[in-house]
């Protein structure tokens, strides 16, 4: 079965430190992978995606993600965290059965302390 | 929130009543989606529409219905058949399939008592 896992419910990091939010996937073949962010009581915003090409993908707000096929991972990273990065982050993978369906992870809450 | 409006922001209904959630977009997008968000479960797809006058069931369509009579509008009706309707509902749109960025509305929080 296709799935995506975010193993950490919450990640805590100090402002200015690097951050990593983990995501692993289980999909046959080549995956299409995405990261979205949700601020409190709002809809999601697109951060970045991996479809093909370079394994390191750069996205909005200074975020980047590294696709690692051997480890089936797509971790989200940022070199220097900001307090304003505190939000709920979702990893998602395309459902192989439909080009219009995403399978979302359960989300990871990022808390950046001043 | 990128040209998608959802109304109302909060909605309260009694059990047994149908309720319709509004979603309008002015982005000229062909595809529109409805998701349900519950704490700790991520987003689950209810229905999606690739183009006007067409829609398909998502993973949790039971107890919900939709229509797509206009490109700009994709209303969701939560019927009395939905066993656990209390949730946060998100509408989204995109130019095409999921390889394109989805733009989300601000959401409607539905409480049924």
What would you say this structure looks like, in words?
- The complex is a heterodimer of chains A (114) and B (113).
- With 114 residues, chain A is an all-beta fold.
- Helix content of chain A is 0%, strand content 51%.
- Chain A has no helices and twelve strands.
- Chain A has strands at residues 3-5, 10-14, 19-21, 24-26, 33-38, 44-50, 56-58, 64-68, 73-78, 87-94, 102-104, 108-113.
- In chain A, strands 2, 5, 6, 10, 11 and 12 form a six-stranded mixed sheet that branches. Chain A has a four-stranded antiparallel sheet with strand order 3-9-8-7, with no helix packed on it. A two-stranded antiparallel ribbon of chain A has the order 1-4.
- In chain A, a hairpin with a 5-residue loop joins strand 7 (56-58) and strand 8.
- Chain A starts with a strand and ends with a strand.
- Chain B is an all-beta fold and 113 residues long.
- Chain B contains no helices and eleven strands.
- In chain B, strands 2, 4, 5, 6, 9, 10 and 11 form a seven-stranded mixed sheet that branches. A four-stranded antiparallel sheet of chain B has the order 1-3-8-7, with no helix packed on it.
- In chain B, strand 5 and strand 6 (54-57) form a beta hairpin.
- The relative contact order of chain B is 0.34.
- The chains are: A mainly beta (114), B mainly beta (113).
- The A-B interface holds A 9, 32, 34, 36, 41-46, 49, 51, 90, 94, 98-102, 104-107 and B 1, 4, 31, 33, 40-45, 48, 50, 56, 58-59, 90, 92, 97-99, 101-107, 109.
């Amino acid at each position: 079965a296709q799935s995506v896992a975010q193993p950490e419910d919450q990640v805590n990091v100090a402002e200015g430190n690097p951050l990593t939010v983990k995501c692993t996937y289980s999909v046959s073949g080549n995956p299409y992978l995405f990261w979205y962010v949700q601020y409190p009581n709002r809809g999601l915003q697109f951060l970045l995606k991996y479809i093909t090409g370079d394994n390191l993908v750069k996205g909005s707000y200074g975020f980047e993600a590294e696709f690692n096929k051997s480890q089936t991972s797509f971790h989200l990273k940022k070199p220097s965290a900001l307090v304003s990065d505190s939000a709920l982050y979702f990893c998602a993978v395309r459902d192989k059965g439909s080009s219009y369906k995403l399978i979302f992870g359960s989300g990871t809450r990022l808390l950046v302390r001043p | 929130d990128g040209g998608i409006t959802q109304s109302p922001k909060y909605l309260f209904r009694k059990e047994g009543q149908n309720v319709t959630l509004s979603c309008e977009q002015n982005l000229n997008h062909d595809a529109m989606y409805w998701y349900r968000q519950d704490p700790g479960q991520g987003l689950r797809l209810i229905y999606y529409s690739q183009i006007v006058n067409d829609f398909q069931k998502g993973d949790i369509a039971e107890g919900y219905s939709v229509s797509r009579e206009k490109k700009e509008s994709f209303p969701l009706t939560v019927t009395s058949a939905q066993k656990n309707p209390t949730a946060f509902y998100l509408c989204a749109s995109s130019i095409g399939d999921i390889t394109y960025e989805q733009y989300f509305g601000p959401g409607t929080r539905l409480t049924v008592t």
